[in-house]
């Protein structure tokens, strides 16, 4: 049965008589995109398929999470997940799997983390998103690693005048157990634009829920004879799986804080500063076994009680962004620098009983630094973009044994540790050339060098015969990423697009060094992995009835 929430909401606003910032921005920029070329380009001239989501689209759909802004776009797959309780969602563009193979930007700063290249949307609301641009196809020629499936660029808003916004609500499913229960949400922001053209926006959002039961306990081992309450569920290959319980309700609490400053100076230069904090924690309560004895009493049978429980987890990340743009050499120079610090990304794996006992806690803090500088200039029918980029990642995964899995502070000894650093530097150029009034070509080329260093694996908590203590030497790899695209407006209502390009993705710290052990099985990382590459070509048609051809 679908979840039908009952919501109460209160909204307060005090906004100047100037046009609403969302409306003004979307009206001005709706036919123009930036992501495809790194300079303002008419949507019909963009080299490749681009989809745009505006603030009006977001408001009309009453979207709460930023992942929902793109989940209805063609060629985009976002794992539905469990709503507020699903911070990390599988994402793919045009069938290229896994979020680590698509570059996701928030105001120009990558959201793909420095540990596994994954995405975490927990605590990031849709309220401040002004615009989303989705560019399909390999884009390493402009954006380097991760941009194999494409680029998703989230752009946040700034106020045009004084404003105050408050949105709060409460929700419950009509039928208990069919959706998150006792959902509480509050979004608050305030901002203004001063006489010196300095714009300020500050605020935060908070959300929590008592959750519902979403994780089932299954086993391929049949229950002990004489027990009832279980149910056989066939697998795809026809072999039986036995449904024997659930892991309880997933309780969730999250918050996001942000500060944005932006100013246009008297000489025409612009600068901006953003800070954003994502944080959430979760836990599960009330596990259930469906198994019953002959007397009708609940039991776990011969199964390990740890199958029926999940431990707590928490996450916190701070993102800083500083940008500047100025005119130089008759063109425009833009510099974008960022720092992302994941202080904690932990979860607990119980190995004891439902009430407590032994367990392990895994934490994967990571830090990333970014600098991207590019320059645009038009020369007649050519618009040239050239730039430099730098990214540094440092990540560590530490796993400790716990004397009591219900308390993450009961660490006893280091079980396993993996760490590594990666640096990627790139140089790129692209020429967007208007061959005729109805024909545009884009030629791009990028060179990236990836360096991996300080790689190590240590497993002091493993059985003595299988322990690993290794340090790995520095490695370097490089990649060329070319791209050629053509856009031809053959008729007023018909535009043909075609592109040919390649992209790459360097392996992550997780893939290189995160060797793990579950039971008696060891899952080995591969420190010798090389960057992935992809070569693609595509042809597309845009049909727009009643469109007028340009002169």
From TrEMBL:
Q: Which residues form the TonB-dependent receptor-like beta-barrel domain?
A: 279-544
Which Gene Ontology terms describe the biological processes this protein takes part in? siderophore transmembrane transport
Q: Where is the TonB-dependent receptor plug domain?
A: 43-151
Compartment list:
Cell outer membrane
Membrane topology classification: Multi-pass membrane protein
Q: Which GO terms describe its cellular component?
A: cell outer membrane
| Alphabetized UniProt keyword annotations | Cell outer membrane, Membrane, Receptor, Signal, TonB box, Transmembrane, Transmembrane beta strand, Transport
InterPro entries noted in UniProt: Beta-barrel_TonB (IPR000531), Beta-barrel_TonB_sf (IPR036942), Plug_dom (IPR012910), Plug_dom_sf (IPR037066), TonB-dep_rcpt-like (IPR039426)
Highest taxon above the source species: Bacteria
In terms of Gene3D superfamilies, this protein maps to: TonB-dependent receptor, beta-barrel domain, TonB-dependent receptor, plug domain
Residues in the signal sequence = 1-26
Q: Name one GO molecular function term.
A: siderophore uptake transmembrane transporter activity
Pfam assignment, any one: TonB_dep_Rec_b-barrel
Tell whether Cell inner membrane is among the UniProt keywords: no
Q: Which PANTHER family match?
A: HEMOGLOBIN AND HEMOGLOBIN-HAPTOGLOBIN-BINDING PROTEIN 1-RELATED (PTHR30069:SF29), TONB-DEPENDENT OUTER MEMBRANE RECEPTOR (PTHR30069)
The text of the family note is: Belongs to the TonB-dependent receptor family.
Protein name as annotated: TonB-dependent receptor
């Amino acid at each position: 049965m679908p979840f039908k929430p009952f919501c109460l909401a209160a909204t307060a606003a005090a906004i100047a008589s100037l046009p609403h910032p969302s409306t003004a921005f979307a009206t001005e920029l709706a036919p123009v995109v930036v992501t495809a070329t790194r300079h303002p380009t008419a949507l019909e001239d963009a080299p490749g398929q681009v989809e745009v989501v505006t603030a009006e689209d977001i408001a009309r759909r009453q979207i709460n999470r930023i992942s929902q802004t793109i989940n209805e776009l063609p060629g985009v797959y976002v794992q539905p997940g469990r709503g507020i309780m699903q911070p990390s969602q599988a994402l793919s563009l045009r069938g290229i799997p896994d979020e680590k193979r698509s570059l996701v930007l928030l105001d120009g700063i990558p959201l793909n983390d420095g540990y596994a290249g994954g995405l975490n949307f927990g605590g990031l609301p849709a309220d401040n998103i002004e615009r989303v641009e989705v560019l399909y196809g390999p884009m390493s020629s402009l954006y380097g690693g991760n941009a194999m499936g494409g680029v998703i660029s989230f752009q946040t808003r700034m106020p045009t005048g004084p404003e105050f916004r408050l949105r709060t609500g409460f929700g419950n499913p009509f039928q208990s157990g069919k959706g998150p229960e006792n959902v509480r949400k509050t979004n608050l922001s305030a901002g203004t634009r001063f006489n010196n053209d300095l714009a300020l926006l500050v605020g935060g959002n908070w959300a929590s829920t008592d959750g519902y039961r979403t994780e089932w306990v299954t086993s391929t081992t049949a229950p002990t004879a004489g027990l009832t309450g279980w149910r056989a569920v066939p697998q795809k290959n026809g072999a039986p799986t036995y449904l024997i319980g659930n892991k309880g309700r997933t309780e969730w609490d999250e918050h996001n804080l942000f500060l944005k400053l932006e100013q246009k100076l008297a000489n025409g230069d612009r600068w901006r500063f953003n800070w954003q904090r994502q944080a959430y924690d979760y836990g599960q309560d009330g596990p259930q076994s469906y198994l019953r004895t002959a007397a009708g009493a609940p039991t776990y049978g011969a199964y390990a009680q740890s199958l029926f429980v999940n431990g707590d987890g928490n996450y916190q990340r701070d993102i800083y962004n500083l940008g500047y743009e100025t005119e130089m050499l008759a063109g425009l120079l833009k510099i974008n620098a960022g720092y992302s610090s994941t202080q904690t990304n932990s979860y607990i794996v119980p190995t004891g009983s439902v009430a407590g006992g032994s367990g392990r806690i895994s934490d994967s803090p990571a830090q990333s630094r970014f600098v991207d500088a590019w320059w645009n200039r038009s020369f007649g029918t050519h618009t040239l973009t050239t730039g430099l980029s730098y990214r540094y990642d440092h990540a560590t995964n530490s796993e400790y044994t716990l004397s009591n899995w219900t308390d993450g502070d009961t660490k006893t000894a280091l079980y396993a540790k993996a760490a590594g650093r990666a640096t990627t530097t790139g140089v790129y150029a692209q020429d967007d050339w208007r061959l005729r009034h109805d024909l545009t070509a884009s030629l791009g080329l990028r060179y990236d060098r990836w360096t991996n260093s300080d790689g190590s694996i240590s497993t002091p908590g493993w059985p003595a015969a299988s322990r690993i203590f290794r340090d790995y030497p520095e490695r370097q790899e490089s990649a060329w990423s070319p791209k050629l695209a053509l856009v031809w407006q053959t008729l007023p209502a018909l535009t043909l697009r075609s592109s040919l390009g390649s992209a790459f993705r360097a392996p992550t710290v997780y893939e290189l060094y995160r060797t793990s052990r579950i039971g008696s099985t060891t899952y080995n990382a591969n420190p010798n992995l090389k960057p992935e590459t992809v070569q693609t070509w595509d042809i597309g048609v845009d049909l727009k009835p009643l469109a007028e051809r340009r002169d």
